[in-house]
Write a structure and sequence with these properties.
Order of helices and strands: HHEHEHEHEHEEEEEHHHEEEHHHEH
Radius of gyration: 21 Å
Number of domains: 2
CATH class of the largest domain: Alpha Beta
Structural class: alpha/beta
Distance between the termini: 25 Å
Number of strands: 13
Strand order of the largest sheet: 1-9-8-5-4-2-3
Shape: globular
Number of helices: 13
CATH architecture of the largest domain: 3-Layer(aba) Sandwich
Largest sheet: 7 strands, mixed
Strand content: 5-15%
CATH topology of the largest domain: Aspartate Aminotransferase, domain 2
Length: about 375
């Protein structure tokens, strides 16, 4: 049996619907940021439970626009070290400097105790990254720390479409949130992003920034140095189709994760540790994560799973701590770090975790085969 690490499929029904709608766009006489983009924004705002959503060209610029709208230039912003480069890059492109915090291995999320130590007088915001679609169990504590220190709390929700804590959705938890719709994401349009917020002023400022800093109706008057961060009608069309099925998408991803949980718990594979997610949190399951402790070498495991069993394991989240990226040594003024800063949990996470295939269309027999293959390879490594 051959099982890829990722596989994006569209049904014949999806394809035909999109072809028909594409034709309407092409016949409409205008293919940039039109009615489909607006409808996608409205549906996504309602889905997240916020009054405003703004479509963008990608998730990274969404985060940059949010940060620029509050004026982080010359200030510091706290981000977790276990995240993708885009989180820190958005801060830097907005004119801020990055402070890194450690994470917690049990949930991949920002450590609130380390956050408290890292806040400085010039800190203006904290970015909570919902890694792998998991919202921090300590969200309320992190929010309280931000409120007490008069800091903006923003969400990097690139992995978290539909994730909840106590019934509240990602995208509605902070002052604003940034989503990505890249091909691997829970809700995908290939490329594209979205900003969600309840702050009308921030929404309007971001709307101007995405269109070259034009705040008023006059197209040749520019009040800010914005950029072309506009969304595409074609990507919005894909988004609208996904919004029709988002509940089914989330239900299937959670079903696959439950099957993995059940089958792995039954087998008790040596060295394999499951990630336990509390009942009050519903993950979007961007990835299905395991820890391989002790004798398990991740690179050898992945190589043997593919060569001997035909199972390709997807990429990790992430296998390099962000604070160790060479770009920050090249441009040291972009970060605030001291030799005494330690990130033991992040270092453990990036070295020890790996992921199993999780995407729409996986059948139970395939999931069973992945788990059987994993047990076979792991036991042979003992």
């Amino acid at each position: 049996m051959r099982i890829p690490g990722f596989d994006l499929k569209y049904s014949e029904e999806d394809i035909q619907w999109m072809v028909d709608e594409f034709e309407k766009i092409l016949q409409g006489g205008f293919i940039s940021m039109g009615s489909h983009s607006k409808e996608f924004e409205e549906k996504f705002a309602a889905f997240c439970g916020v009054p405003y959503a703004l479509g963008t060209s990608n998730g990274t610029c969404s985060l940059e626009m949010i940060l620029r709208s509050i004026g982080v230039k010359g200030s510091t912003v706290v981000v977790p070290s276990h995240t993708f480069m885009a989180t820190a890059a958005a801060v830097i492109h907005a004119g801020g400097r990055v402070i890194f915090t450690d994470c917690q291995r049990e949930n991949f999320q920002m450590d609130p105790e380390d956050l408290k130590k890292k806040i400085r007088p010039d800190t203006k915001a904290v970015i909570l990254v919902h890694m792998s679609g998991i919202i921090s169990l300590h969200y309320e504590e992190i929010k309280r720390v931000c409120d007490e220190n008069h800091l903006y709390l923003f969400e990097d929700a690139a992995h978290a479409h539909g994730a909840t804590i106590d019934g509240k959705k990602a995208g509605s938890l902070g002052h604003a949130a940034a989503f990505s719709f890249f091909s691997t994401k829970v809700l995908t349009t290939g490329e594209g992003g979205m900003i969600t917020t309840a702050d009308k002023s921030l929404y309007e400022h971001c709307m101007a920034l995405r269109d070259h800093g034009r705040f008023g109706p006059e197209p040749n008057i520019h009040d800010e140095f914005g950029s072309n961060w506009r969304p595409s009608e074609f990507h919005a069309l894909l988004g609208l189709r996904q919004m029709q099925k988002i509940d089914q998408i989330l239900e299937e991803r959670r079903w696959i994760a439950r099957l993995y949980d059940e089958k792995l718990s039954e087998r008790q594979i040596p060295g394999i540790k499951l990630l336990e997610i509390p009942d009050r949190i519903q993950s979007a399951y961007y990835k299905y994560i395991l820890y391989g402790d002790g004798f398990i070498n991740r690179d050898i495991l992945k190589k043997r799973m593919k060569e001997e069993c035909g199972v390709s394991l997807p990429g990790e989240l992430y296998n390099q701590a962000l604070h160790t990226q060479p770009v920050f040594k090249k441009y040291p003024d972009t970060v605030v770090m001291s030799p005494s800063d330690k990130f033991p949990e992040t270092e453990y996470v990036v070295k020890k975790h790996f992921c199993l295939p999780l995407y729409l269309g996986l059948k139970e027999k395939q999931i069973d085969y992945v788990v059987t293959s994993l047990e076979k390879i792991v036991r042979s490594m003992m």
